[in-house]
């Protein structure tokens, strides 16, 4: 029978110096609640006769004191934290998509530290407009007449449809009524905008004549949607953009494309991993009137929805009341402008992490992988090998993409891949890997180069903790042994 008399009273714990100091910082009520929780946890440990449980009143009081401090610290811990992405998915939506360039982070820090001319015209000395901050660079890079920024691409699409098509019909191919991550569907966005959806064609084949037959005096615009996270192959047909634009203009209708991925398509910038991924410049050159894209995908910037195209249409969209609800703040503008400025300078594009990851060679990755494996050579029971593998773009861009990389394959004697992967996620910083062929694999393509040593240390420390836990468990089960 466990001796619960070891557990001190809450009042006696609260007067201990460290706990009293914590009460002054956090408040007595909060510390008292933490003390009760710590006492309950100790009672459960004693009931289970866990190894290393306190064996005296003094040890029990000390254990509760340390646990109170730990619970209070955990209560203040931030839920959003940096992780190491070793999955090989460049635009990992669950991990925040595109990491920002150092220049963008610097601009955000500078603007966040004080006031900024967000809506103030420094030349005129009077109120200005926030949209000017990114418009010049966006129009220069895309060739568009005008541009605006919303808080994400779904918001940008909703805004355009609400401003140009509320109460009227929008023609869209049945094969483009996609659902993106999180359950957001194009028909739902259209419904919320007040536009009336007019489907044409079939799931796999839509011709320009299908669009033409649906045009009436109720038609507001034609919508083209990027397939995002899937690709249809086989018996399929989709009108050429220029052909669709010619039809729309023949009937004085705008052609609006939700392009999604945000690939600029600059001259001389060729990324083999993207294959035939559509670009903003290609769409505008084909006659599309408005193009909406994400800022945190292939552009490599912050979360934002960018709309570029004809000035008269942009002006109409910008004046819609919904614009205020979906506008972005000074921090987003700062990161976006800094990222666009890097794109505008050919030598500086490699500073954009997404671009650097997409263009990194297999030889570069293998060189880094060998260095990481060398740092792990002393980890007991851990086997590390370098194997061939593939990376992918992710984030709904370049669906089906897969191009060569090198993977670090990890296996730990007596530990399942799930167990090792779970321990890596529990580390600080957390390492997010993937399991392939019953091994945990790390793809350094999506690990920032200055994180290589941090990654190696995280693996090594995780292995040490697993081995220590296994040793303790083995010791506690051995007859005649006293747990340390």
What does this structure look like?
The chain has 484 residues and is an alpha/beta fold. The chain folds into three domains: 4-76, no CATH class; 83-91 and 358-477, Alpha-Beta Complex (Aspartate Aminotransferase, domain 1); 102-349, Type I PLP-dependent aspartate aminotransferase-like (Major domain) (Aspartate Aminotransferase, domain 2). Helices cover 43% and strands 17% of the residues. It contains 18 helices and 17 strands. It has helices spanning 10-14, 17-26, 28-48, 57-76, 102-112, 132-142, 153-165, 186-193, 208-214, 241-250, 280-285, 311-318, 322-326, 330-343, 353-359, 362-375, 417-426, 452-477; strands at residues 83-85, 120-121, 126-127, 146-150, 169-173, 179-180, 184-185, 196-200, 219-225, 255-260, 290-294, 305-309, 382-391, 403-412, 430-432, 434-436, 439-443. The strands form five sheets. Strands 4-12-11-10-9-5-8 form a seven-stranded mixed β-sheet, sandwiched between helices. A four-stranded antiparallel β-sheet has the order 13-14-17-16. Strand 9 (219-225), helix 10 (241-250) and strand 10 (255-260) form a beta-alpha-beta unit. Helix 3 crosses helix 4, helix 6 (132-142) runs parallel beside helix 14 (330-343) and helix 16 (362-375) runs parallel beside helix 18 (452-477). The chain starts with 9 loop residues before the first helix and ends in a 7-residue tail after the last helix. 38% of the residues are buried. Residues 480-484 have low confidence and may be disordered.
